[in-house]
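Title: Prediction job returns without error message
Component: structure pipeline
Severity: low
Priority: P3
Assignee: unassigned

Description:
Job completed but the reporter wants confirmation the result is attached to the right record. Sequence as submitted:
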Amino acid sequence: MTEPTPMMAQYLEIKAQHRDAILFYRMGDFYEMFFHDAILASEALDIALTKRGKHLGEDIAMCGVPHHSSDGYLLGLIRKGFRVAIAEQMEDPAEAKKRGYKAVVRREVVRVVTPGTLTEDALLEARRHNYLAAFAEVRDEAALAWTDISTGELRVMSCPRPRLLPELGRLSPRELLVAEGSEVAPEGMAITPLARSAFDSASAEKRLRELWKVGSLEGFGGFARAEVSALGALVEYLDLTQRGRMPLLRAPVREMPGAAMQIDAATRRNLEVTESMAGGRDGSLLSSIDRTVTAPGARLLERRLASPSCDLKVIAARHEAVAFLVDHARARADLREDLRRVPDMDRALSRVALDRAGPRDLAAIRAGLTQAEAIGRMSDVPELMTDALSALRGHEGLCDLLDQALIAEPPLLARDGGFIAEGFDAELDDTRRLRDEGRGVIAKMQAEYVAQTGVQSLKIKHNNVLGYFIEVTTTHETVMREAGFIHRQTTANQLRFTTLELSELETRILNAGNHAMEIEKRHFAALCAAIMENAAAIGTAARALAQLDVLAALADLAVAEDWCAPKVDDSRAFHVEQGRHPVVERALRKKGDAFVANDCDLTTAPIWLLTGPNMAGKSTFLRQNALIALLAQAGSFVPAKTAHVGLVSQLFSRVGAADDLARGRSTFMVEMVETAAILNQADDRALVILDEIGRGTATYDGLSIAWATMEHLHDANRCRALFATHYHEMTALSKKLSGIENATVAVTEHEGDVIFLHSVRKGAADRSYGVQVARLAGLPGAVIERAKAVLEALEAGDREGGRRQAVIDDLPLFRTPAPAPVKASAVEAKLREASPDQMTPMEALKLVYELRGML
């Protein structure tokens, strides 16, 4: 059996420690992959698969990607569900050669890349968080912790298992850590099982205390055992994947139950808060309102939309700040212009902490702090903005250091060099001068030697044997020796000398490039250390800038779209005057159409029963009022003339449905599951929108379910609700239950066609106009006519004392009428008589006029 080469033996040893990951094995300028890893990677990345030697008698599959452009390949593997272990060369190959010709360059895995542990800009979406989450269960407790290591944010909350899916829907983590054997398996994210020991709460507390170098966690707040367990699992996993280079995690923030509006996954999907039903951001509420000019601001806006506040003081402070910027156009414009020049300091700081930073990350922090100082000079602003502005001041020392040390536009990588500014280090300037102007320095020295000796023919020359030397003719030997020059070589007609100064200069010139790089690396490390000493203040400034960006963006939106400041209080009011749907309004405007605004008042009668035909705008009306409540509590102005929103604790939506074939659930079953969740969870401060409950089953079954659901919302949940239905029989409930009021979407008919007015008014619809809508949809005329006849017969049966079933039994079978024979018209007859080939242009024109006269 052939022994593996030393290199392959090293590869197999490292791979054995990372069986669950594709191993990027650094070999010079490439990351190489071997064996099954190579096969998987070549298929996933569509790159060439080759061979490299044999192992156990079989060819070794191999593929590789360039080191300098590896980020794109790495992202491709991560998006397809792979983990990647990166093994770097930990020494210069020249050092390995000194140990013998069979010595192998020492390599180590420096990092395991997973979906939740990305930090590079090329691998991340700038305007979205990249969360890594952990779910822990300790006896009868459960908790969810999450972090974005690219920004250092770390949060935890108590999370009973029934709340897990809604919270995951809110956060959309890229990766979820669970204990081995756990049955938790939500869709849409990578699931990573960890040994149960990683979730041990006692060990977890010790890990957390060591991480933040504290004797107790009490200084961060009181944490339940399950919360400590979840936090500890995150830290354990980060230590494993980052190979000891722990990211700069901020102190954990404990989110309290009830602090944010609860929105379940189905409601987020139905309302298209951050993603549209089609997938992606286009068409979502977020994409329609996002006017932030910085990446951290965009991420903060997304978080606020996903977690609208239930704290009235927080909401009021945000509205006050937005109102100030609405009223002060010049201040708003100047602030937004300054913010446009603010880079992503959060992520740059994280890379510095992980030792993955480049000179541009340092420049980003310099630019961010410089802009922070400028913005921090604003005055006479609301309290929320005052607090943010105070965090932007006091960074002059670090700004000055970075400004003096770095050039204006540094390279991406430190190894490229040239990023330390001229004048910052005299030794570096001299070294660069030697590197770049070696000939000039030698020429200057030659002139000095000529002046010293008076020998005009003296030359400083260079060859590969002697290096630099001073050459004169033999007639000047005495002068040279008396002047202290050191003899090196005699030729037929020349003498060659050197000096200690020239020898030192030669060494410096030859080593100038490497020496300059070493000096720059030293300064880079010192600058990184200076940044880390100020990491807490930099992070606070970055978050303050994001806060200001969101406030200014919402103010800009309010002015441009004519949105109003909502009143949010502790009442159960819900009164919106001339409300609009922000996404639909934007889409209509692009087509040149206007949105029809509508009122909604659930203050006196907390439940509206909405009737009207399909396509009239019922679903839009339902959704727009839910979004108005969400926007108001997120701290935004809202698309309405006026709005008064009593605090909404929960937002529920059951709008539209589809089969869930993977779980064997029909449309109706999905609808019933979602409705059950609402009826079982909604409290008296919830806002519920329900559309067409019961339509997925037989008429009387559906009506009875819808009727009972409405009664439960009124009597048991006692919440505010908008309930759209085609069951006109339900309008009778308004006479039986005091909290229900009927409303309808107005339509009118013209020559048999229905015209949608999209206007909501009090009262009930008298019919559904289904046949007219079917005509608009393009159903064949014969089907439309038959549908009319059936409808008229059924309605007549009802008028005659409930003879509907008898009418159905007596209806003849539907037959598509045979097409009537086509009779040729006078125009067609005239055309058949014509001979175009024999006609002059004038005759043809005359025929056209004649045919037109026959119409």
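Comment from assignee: result matches the submitted record. The CA atoms of residues 385 and 724 lie 42 Å apart.
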